Amino acid sequence: MKYSTAKKIVDQIRKHDEVFNDLTPLLDQVEDVKLRTELRKASAAVVTSMYADLLLPLKRRFPELDIGDD
What we know:
The chain has 70 residues and is mostly helical. It has one domain. It has helices at 3-14, 16-28, 33-61. The longest helix has 29 residues, at 33-61. The radius of gyration is 15 Å and the shape is elongated.
């Protein structure tokens, strides 16, 4: 894989940062505690997976790549 391709992938994934940041306060508004907990857990799992399964492998291959972990 070329660095330029890895950067494009990272850029696309990073576009979701704002979406999940905006989603968190909305999930906090869910009145049903059980449902709120399930939704927050699912949201956290997606974010964790994007980082661990998509961004970290690219960072290992291209250490100079900015994945937003500073």
